[in-house]
Backbone:
């Protein structure tokens, strides 16, 4: 029986179109309006930053934060939506300017750990057992300013604190090689998985792979996913696309390289991704040129492309592929894939 997929995205994927060189170009949608879009587009999972759940989180007492999180959970229940994960946003506050867990100031590091433990509590309130760590500022602008080996143990220590805060919580490291930092401390899936094994409970530390982040590292997203799958540690994905080595583009899934997207869907299918409750997450941005009333199209299209590629994977002539492999005729295999993607029948 072929598996079925459940889809998620984050409220930040419906956005106003600002970029580093220009202001917003679209009016915002209120959080509740965004939640309705999930249903409308056939998504069931909501990815959260801690302050997507509780805006201006640092202004509230611990009790109030948890109370507000419970209100969000009630709203999710009403709409039959599910929280996929909570990610502590450790890159906007002034105390994270020099990094969060790896800041050179111990007070900043304390703040980052405290805020992360709070994110674990928020996750429990909104009914999910996953924390995603996109380690935005854990890296350096200037290599000599930090010690990467020490940084690794600081990241591991922070993860240990989250693991200790809740025995049911799982941590998903989302590697990315650069941006906003020149050089990140956990740039690839290999780094993320290796860090997981250094923690107090590696069975609860895994990873989330974003397609664009792999491409920015000069790697193929499906290989990065496969590496984590081989460790049984691929617990989340952020599907999107990326046109070469430039700023993080978060383009619609498959929009740059359809074959690369096919390979991602294929690797997920082959390793039963989703069957232990993993979500097909998107992390995509609408083009700045898009008008407000059609500013969800990138989400709809990315999901549609994923589903069409699932069909492509399931109808791929595997026996023919196996014959080419047995004959070591990879030119034939190459063309078999291209013809299949082009919708041509077998020769
Ligand atoms: C940055 C990202 C982030 C993370 C998000 C949740 C804004 O490149 O991909 O998206 O995915 O913070 O972890
Ligand atoms: Mg992402």
Residues:
């Amino acid at each position: 029986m072929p598996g079925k997929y459940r889809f998620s995205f984050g409220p930040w994927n419906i956005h106003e179109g600002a970029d580093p060189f220009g202001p917003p170009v679209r009016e915002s949608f209120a959080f509740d309006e965004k939640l309705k879009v999930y249903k409308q587009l056939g998504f069931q999972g909501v990815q959260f930053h801690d302050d997507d759940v509780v805006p201006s989180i640092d202004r509230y007492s611990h009790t109030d934060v948890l109370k507000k999180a419970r209100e969000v959970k009630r709203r999710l229940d009403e709409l039959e939506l599910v929280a996929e994960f909570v990610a502590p946003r450790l890159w906007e506050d002034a105390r994270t300017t020099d990094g969060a867990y790896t800041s050179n100031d111990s007070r900043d590091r304390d703040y980052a750990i405290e805020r992360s433990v709070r994110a674990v509590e928020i996750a429990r309130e909104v009914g999910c057992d996953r924390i995603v760590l996109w380690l935005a500022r854990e890296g350096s602008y200037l290599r000599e300013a930090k010690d990467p080996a020490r940084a690794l143990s600081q990241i591991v220590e922070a993860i240990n604190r989250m693991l200790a805060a809740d025995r049911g919580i799982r941590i998903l490291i989302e590697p990315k090689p650069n941006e906003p930092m020149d050089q990140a401390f956990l740039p690839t899936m290999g780094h993320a998985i290796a860090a997981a094994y250094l923690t107090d409970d590696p069975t609860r530390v895994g990873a989330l792979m974003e397609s664009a982040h792999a491409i920015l590292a000069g790697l193929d997203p499906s290989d990065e996913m496969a590496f984590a799958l081989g460790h049984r540690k691929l617990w989340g994905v952020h599907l999107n696309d990326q046109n070469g080595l430039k700023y993080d583009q978060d383009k619609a899934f498959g929009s740059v390289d359809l074959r690369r997207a096919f390979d991602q869907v294929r690797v997920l299918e082959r390793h039963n991704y989703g069957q232990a409750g993993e979500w097909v997450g998107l992390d995509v941005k609408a083009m700045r040129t898009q008008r407000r009333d059609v500013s969800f199209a990138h989400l709809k299209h990315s999901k549609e492309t994923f589903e069409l590629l699932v069909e492509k994977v399931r109808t791929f002539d595997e026996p023919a592929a196996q014959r080419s492999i047995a004959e070591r005729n990879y030119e034939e295999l190459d063309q078999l894939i291209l013809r299949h993607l082009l919708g041509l029948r077998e020769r």
The CA atoms of residues 12 and 94 lie 21 Å apart. The chain has a mean pLDDT of 97. The chain has two domains: 7-315, 317-347. The pocket of 3-O-methylfructose in linear form (ligand 1) is lined by residues 12, 87, 132, 134, 174, 176, 210, 238, 248, 283 (CB under 6 Å).
